[in-house]
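User: For a benchmark we're assembling, each entry needs the component sequences followed by a predicted structure for the full assembly. Here are entry 17's components. Please fill in the structure.
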Amino acid sequence: MSGEWIDTHLVFRQVHPNHVDGAMPNSVAFSPTPKDDDKLSVDDSAQVTAEGSWKHFTEKLGFKSVGTWAVSAGEIHGAGDLDLRKDPVVDAQDATKSNPAHCVIDFSRLTSKGQRKKKAQTLAIKASERGCQFLAAK
Amino acid sequence: MTKVPFIQPRFVGPRFEAHTLPLSAAKDLVAYEELVLELAKHLFKEKQTDRMRVPKGFANDFSLHIEKIDDGSAIPSLVAMIASAQLFVSLPSEFTEAKDLVNAVIATEADQPFPANFPKDFYSYFNRIGRSLKEGEQIEWTPASPSSRSVLTPAKRIRLARAHRETYEAEADVIGLVEVLDAKKKTGILRVPGNEAISFVYDDPFFVDLKDALGNPVIHARVKGVGVFDVNDRLCSVIEIEQLECLPHYPLVSKIDALTLLSDGWLEGRGIAPTGANLDWLTSEVAINFPEELAYPSVAPIEDGNVSFEWIQPHARVELEVNFAEKQLELYATNLSTAAFVEQTFTHEQWGAAFEKIRGLLKS
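Assistant: Structure for entry 17:
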């Protein structure tokens, strides 16, 4: 167990077309920026499918994604100094943009860019090992 | 010389709106002149069945000149020039008949039969007539005609060139590795992405560059010229090279070049696009400094406008972030097999040291 999560529990990450090399997502796809408040957006697999996560991201939010990759709660906590938390989104103005499955991987305990890079690379390796969970048609 | 008005084709398209004619389009008119001349000779021989040859002076002194270029896109006025010393005092009727027959061929739509008296072999002239046309452009050979303006478009040109052949000629622009070069025959083979082999012929001025690229896995050659295409529009060979450019580390440089398409907001409404100046600098640095024996990395833009090179292995990631603002190269490498993490910063001038370090990390 990793806090409230079972180690094998998966969370989904959407990957921008510029952040993938063949079937492998780049590390930057798993790296939050200061503008993200050091929080990486993911979706809870217990509440949405890999395809459903992609559809919400692209069709409801209007963002670009080539597909859905996943990391487990155990891998997130195993990387060290990362926290996985539920963070449901409620959009009062446009209910279609609400996302009860939304979670965040919190990088804010990491104090240097190097530490953040190390964790992002670790997550990218694990997500690549697992393989793409949903690939959008080209 | 006698001057006789002959035809006023109208070139339509953005390139012709300044009422000028690009030199490449003038080549089309040269091919048109050849077709009219040969067709007129053919028509004359058909009428004079007892003559094996056309009379002296029938064609030798015929030529088309551009007298002026009128407004209305570009309308070159072509006049037939006839030498006054020849037997004929005016333009032989076969030239006018040839012109009309060419117009009729061009006016033929896909569901209509071609004029029966146009020789099959002459369709190959359409490999050259209209070859300079780009998509959206056309030549109206009889723009004033109320019934048919004899419009030649790029698609119709290919249909005419292919009317009695399996292949057609068109402008080719292809990039590949120079695999074979035969200096005696002046031919070679280009291996293009997808592993297809494209044969080419070349002229002397291109030999030095082709020789430099021959067998060199890090120098691609970009060949622009005239290509032969099959029924599936697949390039089979390049029969004339007009421009040749050597592209060091093309697979990597082209990935960097692709980032010029990004605009601000590219990542979820945020994301600063790398500047053109930074990308130009990066491509030139990579072309000069990237080592031959190092695998090409993945290239990814970063939200802050920097660019990341990443070498991806099953249990490791090696990332070199090109930080334009700080003028530094930031190396981050994680290896889950050895539990090692490496972080090192280089200046913008230390490409060699950075790549050397990366090469070592990829071996470990």
